[in-house]
TrEMBL record:
Span of domain Nuclear pore complex interacting protein N-terminal: 21-64
Origin species: Sciurus carolinensis (Eastern gray squirrel)
GO cellular component labels: endoplasmic reticulum exit site; endoplasmic reticulum membrane
Matches recorded under InterPro entries: cTAGE_MIA/OTOR, NPIP_N
Signal peptide: none
Keywords: Coiled coil, Membrane, Transmembrane, Transmembrane helix
UniProt feature coiled coil, ranges: 68-113
Domain of life: Eukaryota
Record's protein name: Melanoma inhibitory activity protein 3
Length: 160
């Protein structure tokens, strides 16, 4: 029973040996690498490259700050909350605009009533002035009639 990894490594080594064999004779490597056989050296180089790739992948390329890891569901919930708040604000704004319109209408009606009341007050002031003048005239006449009555009484006493 052979493992898939061992089969893969055998095939990789065979392909690498064929690649080395295709090089010109003056550039061919010797039977060993500074006293070590080529197979363990090549396996070590291959493992080093793989471990470097894994290290690079795990540390450099996958660096993500956890603050920015937000799910689509969280974004959609936040968007729904913002839309709900926006609707509430629009409703509040329309309510306030309606209240402002009603207040302006009430102010206009109050101004009209004030104008009408001030016109009536001017009319009544004129009537009051006229009545005061008439009252003074009537008071003067009442005094004169009283004086005449008193004089008539004296005259009638004198005659009797």
């Amino acid at each position: 029973m052979t493992l898939p990894g061992s089969y893969l490594s055998k095939k990789l080594l065979e392909n690498f040996e064929e690649l080395v064999a295709t090089r010109p004779n003056d550039a061919q490597p010797g039977p060993d690498f500074f006293g070590l056989p080529w197979k363990p050296v090549l396996v070590t180089v291959f493992l080093g490259i793989v471990s470097f790739a894994i290290f690079f992948w795990r540390t450099i390329l996958v660096v993500k700050d956890r603050i920015y890891q937000v799910t689509e569901q969280q974004i959609s919930e936040k968007l729904k909350n913002i839309m709900k708040e926006n609707e509430e604000l629009v409703q509040n704004l329309s309510n306030h605009e309606q209240k402002i319109k009603e207040s302006k209408k009430h102010v206009q009606e109050t101004k009209k009533q004030n104008v009408i009341l001030s016109d009536e007050a001017i009319k009544y002031k004129g009537k009051i002035k006229l009545l005061e003048e008439t009252n003074e005239i009537l008071d003067d006449r009442a005094k004169s009639l009283h004086v005449m009555l008193e004089s008539e009484k004296r005259m009638s006493r004198i005659r009797t």
